[in-house]
């Protein structure tokens, strides 16, 4: 188990929605640090877990009292308890090693925030198995890291995680094995998957808005899928999309024009993301956000279809399947989040390529050219993580996604 003390305490910039939630998340992170320190002080954590059937029955009664929960161990023989307990021990200790290696600080914050907010609202029954496990491992009502570890072991045993979550354990074991014999290429792939996960930590519009070639902004009259009445400027902030005189290249990339697929309107991406973060007015009456330029709903509606060939690729390409599995079990990313990160990669690649073509031959912009080329190299690594080695199929799918589901309503 690793991680220095300060490294695992969230900075205030990562604070959740409320101060109370933030403090509770921070307390959980610190308790997790204590558990890691406890693990570092023991050659074998297995020795800290109970073994005798009578002790296991008492531990189950302590954490799952019979008046509230049906006992799993009451009807089991001592031999069956020994066998099931060993499976639970292997699952728990393997999972802890797996999560220590694969779970970043941002992932921990995300998981604890979700679990704490559910707890605040009296919705503990909605905890995922992972949330329930880690809320037990960090429960301040238990007096020591050893007590929390024993309680977590009983959660795994009583709820039969070893059987119900066997696929998670196998994925973790495979990852640990790969990390132990990792080459430079494996380490780079692991870092790239971390970067893919980071995409989910900010406001996401990539599932319904995609960058477009700059040439389309000058040909809106002949293109029924484009609505741009603002002469190459963002209609929200009024800044031009390509003027390096007005803004640095980083801002131009962040606010590159994207087309909202539900209506065809063009807006700067950063402005659209800000729009999605803006508090709703009369949320009870208007629960879903609309396009900032028209009343077409962009929230609470079905996302435009992802290319069928892309879905097939994710199910058949070996590297893509590995990435899907590790993002699913290592980072709790669901299907929509995974697809959205691919859409984001495609959209950002369009933006970088277009801006690069605008400034490549300007002698004074060599630094900006280098920045965009570095960004494209990073995006190429993401493509590789998804199993795309060349440009052919990827470029075809990117074009298909850019035009997928676009409706002009302006």
UniProtKB/TrEMBL annotation:
InterPro entries: Znf-RING_euk, Znf_RING, Znf_RING/FYVE/PHD. The keyword Zinc-finger applies. It holds the Pfam family zf-RING_UBOX. CDD domains: RING-H2. It comes from the Eukaryota. Signal peptide: none annotated. Residues 234-295 form the RING-type domain. The keyword Cell membrane does not apply. Keywords: Metal-binding, Zinc, Zinc-finger. One of its GO terms (molecular function) is zinc ion binding. This is RING-type domain-containing protein. The lineage of its organism: Eukaryota, Fungi, Dikarya, Ascomycota, Pezizomycotina.
């Amino acid at each position: 188990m690793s991680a220095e003390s300060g490294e695992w305490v969230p900075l205030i910039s990562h604070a959740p929605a409320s101060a109370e939630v933030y403090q509770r998340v921070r307390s959980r992170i610190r308790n997790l640090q204590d558990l890691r320190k406890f693990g570092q002080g023991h050659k074998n954590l297995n020795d800290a877990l109970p073994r005798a059937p009578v002790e296991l029955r008492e531990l189950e009664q302590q954490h799952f009292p019979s008046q509230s929960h049906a006992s799993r161990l009451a009807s089991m023989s001592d031999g069956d308890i020994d066998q099931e307990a060993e499976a639970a021990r292997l699952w728990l200790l393997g999972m802890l090693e797996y999560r220590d290696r694969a779970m970043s600080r941002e992932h921990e914050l995300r998981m604890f925030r979700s679990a704490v907010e559910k707890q605040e609202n009296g919705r503990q029954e909605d905890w995922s198995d992972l949330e329930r496990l880690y809320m037990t491992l960090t429960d301040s009502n238990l007096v020591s890291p050893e007590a929390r570890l024993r309680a977590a072991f009983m959660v795994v045993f009583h709820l039969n995680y070893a059987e119900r979550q066997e696929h998670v354990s196998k994925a973790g074991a495979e990852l640990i094995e790969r990390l132990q014999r990792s080459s430079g290429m494996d380490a780079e792939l692991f870092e790239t998957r971390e970067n893919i996960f980071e995409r989910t930590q900010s406001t996401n519009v990539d599932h319904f808005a995609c960058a477009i070639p700059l040439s389309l902004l000058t040909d809106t009259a002949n293109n029924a899928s484009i609505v741009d009445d603002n002469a190459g400027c963002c209609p929200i902030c009024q800044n031009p999309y390509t003027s390096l005189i007005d803004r640095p290249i980083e801002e131009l990339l962040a606010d590159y024009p994207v087309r909202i697929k539900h209506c065809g309107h063009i807006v700067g991406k950063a402005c659209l993301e800000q729009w999605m973060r803006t508090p709703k007015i009369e949320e009870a009456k208007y629960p879903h956000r609309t396009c900032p330029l028209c009343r077409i709903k962009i929230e609470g509606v079905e996302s435009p279809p992802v290319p069928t060939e892309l879905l097939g690729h994710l199910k058949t390409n070996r590297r893509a399947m590995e990435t899907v599995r590790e993002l699913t079990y290592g980072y709790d990313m669901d299907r929509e989040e995974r697809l959205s990160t691919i859409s984001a990669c495609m959209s950002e690649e369009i933006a970088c390529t277009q801006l690069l073509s605008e400034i490549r031959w300007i002698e004074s912009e060599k630094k900006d050219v280098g920045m965009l080329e570095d960004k494209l190299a990073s995006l190429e690594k993401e493509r590789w993580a998804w199993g795309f080695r060349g440009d052919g199929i990827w470029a075809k799918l990117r074009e298909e996604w850019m035009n997928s589901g676009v409706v002009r309503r302006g």
